[in-house]
Design brief:
Four copies of one chain form a homotetramer.
Chain A lengths: L28 E3 L2 E3 L5 E5 L6 H13 L4 E3 L17 H14 L3 E4 L6 H7 L2 E4 L7 H9 L4 E4 L6 H13 L5 E5 L17 H8 L4 E3 L1 H5 L5 H10 L4 E5 L17 H17 L7
Parallel strand pairs in A: 3-4, 3-10, 4-5, 5-6, 6-7, 7-8, 8-9, 9-10
Antiparallel strand pairs in A: 1-2
Helix pairs in contact in A: 1-2, 1-9, 4-5, 8-9
Chain lengths: 285, 285, 285, 285
Amino acid sequence: MPAVCDPVGPTTAAFPLVAREARPQGTVVTVRGVAIGGPGVVVIAGPCAVENERQLLATARAVKAGGAKMLRGGAFKPRTSPYSFQGLKEEGLELLALARAETGLPIVTEVMDARQLPLVAAYADMLQIGSRNMQNFTLLEEVGRCRMPVLLKRGMSATLDEYLLAAEYVMKGGNDQVTLCERGIRTFEPSTRGTLDLNAVPMLKRRTHLPVLVDPSHGTGHAWMVPALACAAIAAGADGLLIEVHCDPPNALCDGSQSLTPEEFARMTTAVAAIAAAIGRVAPS
Amino acid sequence: MPAVCDPVGPTTAAFPLVAREARPQGTVVTVRGVAIGGPGVVVIAGPCAVENERQLLATARAVKAGGAKMLRGGAFKPRTSPYSFQGLKEEGLELLALARAETGLPIVTEVMDARQLPLVAAYADMLQIGSRNMQNFTLLEEVGRCRMPVLLKRGMSATLDEYLLAAEYVMKGGNDQVTLCERGIRTFEPSTRGTLDLNAVPMLKRRTHLPVLVDPSHGTGHAWMVPALACAAIAAGADGLLIEVHCDPPNALCDGSQSLTPEEFARMTTAVAAIAAAIGRVAPS
Amino acid sequence: MPAVCDPVGPTTAAFPLVAREARPQGTVVTVRGVAIGGPGVVVIAGPCAVENERQLLATARAVKAGGAKMLRGGAFKPRTSPYSFQGLKEEGLELLALARAETGLPIVTEVMDARQLPLVAAYADMLQIGSRNMQNFTLLEEVGRCRMPVLLKRGMSATLDEYLLAAEYVMKGGNDQVTLCERGIRTFEPSTRGTLDLNAVPMLKRRTHLPVLVDPSHGTGHAWMVPALACAAIAAGADGLLIEVHCDPPNALCDGSQSLTPEEFARMTTAVAAIAAAIGRVAPS
Amino acid sequence: MPAVCDPVGPTTAAFPLVAREARPQGTVVTVRGVAIGGPGVVVIAGPCAVENERQLLATARAVKAGGAKMLRGGAFKPRTSPYSFQGLKEEGLELLALARAETGLPIVTEVMDARQLPLVAAYADMLQIGSRNMQNFTLLEEVGRCRMPVLLKRGMSATLDEYLLAAEYVMKGGNDQVTLCERGIRTFEPSTRGTLDLNAVPMLKRRTHLPVLVDPSHGTGHAWMVPALACAAIAAGADGLLIEVHCDPPNALCDGSQSLTPEEFARMTTAVAAIAAAIGRVAPS
């Protein structure tokens, strides 16, 4: 008392495709040559939203210089209010492709809906399913029919069982290039945007063969907290990080308060590299 | 301490369309002649999923006899596991139309995705947006372009601000026939499926002009709890109820444990009618 | 999925004394002739804190006139901040005794600590264990050795199992005059002080023979919400209510924003009486 | 949206004694020569409960050999059920004193009630206030009048504001030797006992000058998860760890499933030392 369900029995019955038992050695998801889930720790970084060419290119160059291996950036933005900036849409995708051409960084960007999929898939190297869509089963099935890597973020109040079953939907479609990402859960605490759930890291690593990333930017909502939680995530066994960086956070169109400056980002990756080395993993170079 | 934000100031700025101030007299949503949000209390009932003709018609006749004014039933089912019954899809819609023809009850059924909308809209009298899709903004926008009544269920961990903004998305598209529905939130308590949040009823009624229903079936997960919470919901000021009823709960393909039998449903509506009368509302017939 | 534990099996093993099976007919707790848990619905009302003679007597007379059968008021106040008003302590107890002499209403007041027990027990008719002390096991054992009625409030994040086990501690000491009280649980919603959990009412009534009250004042934090939730609680099957009333809420030393005026309280008890009658219970006077 | 309160303004007004501003250089709590909150990372370890001489001495020697600087062990045990093992009480305190004599490790043990304080203080080097007593204000005040170090664990659903105010109660009594400890909060996730909240670490370090420990044993409930979260806690900036270790976990009288064996503990401290070195802190030994 309180009773705790034993989560470590054979879960093959409920999650035949994602269960660790189905692939004990683990899955490595490869995005244009960047391996997620291998010995190395991968950092994906970029702005919350693509705002314009200058902002995106400046940020992309900065995150590459700071150690990021992939670029993130939203073209289609799921916003709580219909009156908030909704993203540049196709123009944003074109700018992401431009940033990729400039920096060589593969790009991950969100697809909000099955109908958008052909368009987004034409530009992206990895498709992000956002937290609010973790149980958009139509979208999961559609993405399962793609042969592109998927970054599936955990819902804000999803249990780990529900999260694994969302991944099962994608794999059932035939796509096993799925990466998970813990990004903060909803609790009673008002001083942070979410509560980053690092329990999820070892639990997911034990229960599934899929790679597990952590997003401390959304998981805290405060830029100054991001480096500490980024280090903690890697120490807990995460395969990498998703970090919001902006070339000018005070003037960001969204999530400025949780975005690192390029300088802060570079210091963070240095700290993360030391942690990675301490646990015997390859540092994010 | 603990500080509580005052939610009762003018919210017109953040929610210009859904705020109570925008329509102080309240909105009545009318579905084939059934008024939701007027003086009467409306009961919508039916099975979780449409399973076959016999099950649906038996249940539809029973809920009509028991006092329901509309029929609910899922043809497209958002299921946590890809291995659970996913609904009869278009065949389920046809059966719902048949049940309407037989009983005269308008039908509400879930649309899971913008692409499904034309199909579902061809059969339904009211479109349900499920909890997992409360922030599927593409779907909200698409439904906002329809001129059909919408039943927008609250997300399992949505704050009331987020919920009102989801409704704002629909109204911003031009569709003001929106009905809200509290259906249980996620808490730490393991003995019930959700925790039915009846605080939400007076709070939503104060903050918005839209009608507010309550779904005690999902909000508890136990059929034996449904009548007590149904009465409580009406006493709290809800405009109606969404109730799962099945002609044979032990053999239901989903949610049997939370489905009332026709007899239990008829007893429930009698109890609800007494509560409605006690607070000066028109009883559910 | 999500799996819901069945809470309705025989719980005699874990809760031998509080389980419904141990006393299927239910327990009636009697406080100076006021029966809690019988056919009638009981309203207990009064100020959050005893402030001075004038405030307490004015409020006591008003709640008696408005239908209350017992007076509540805090002399020892558990406050989140050490810099908030901590209560009048023994002087407060003396004023409560004076109010009882004036109005004939039995009094319930909080005991915060085993050492305070002899003092508080010398004045009170019923001992309140506050939410923060629901698992103060030393206090529970000490109160179990008393032969006085106990009002045991639910902890802010206590599961129902934990709550029943706290009551088991008191009964194990030999005191079976225990009344439970749901008062709002902690969730992610910021617009109310707590989320009143009315699921708890039928669930507790099924699992235990002890009476169950509801406190919508703490469960919402807003006076204007109290009447709606009070009605809902009775409709859900609660045996009574605990309501904060103050003769002058804007000038209350604590919890003014959730305190009803005497006029609001009288209107509330009229509404509650109608609900009680509608479900076949004796109204509160 | 969702708005996040800014927690980083001057909090001196609400928390004059515990606020970081009151002592920018930080507090070092010293327990018989062991410094908590200095450059070094401190590991406190031992069994959940003192069971007998053999068990305690074996475990105490093992944790000392494994790098612990202090011994933990419960003599008075706050148990959810009155039928669970309640601790050896004074006999347990005597055994703790014996273990200290044998190993030289200072001891920390829980005091559940103001009346127990003289007895517990006669044996302990540091007084633990457990999670369920975080808002037992009488006990906080009494401990504030002591001149002994205090380990104040966070309540299972306490906001950080509430937690800091509980520490303020102790400091207001004149005792500034307070150490905080995050030990898992209550969320909707059923697969772990609690959700370890590592957001709390940088947030508390910024807002208060008091040292911050983390207890991953209670924060996860699974021994196999403890090392990963212990490393994460140190990476996040915690000043040390509280770890449950038992010489024979399968036969422990409580919390066996979350207790490390001596061998697992020794491996954990090695891993933690590497993390501590990576962030420039002195390793635990």
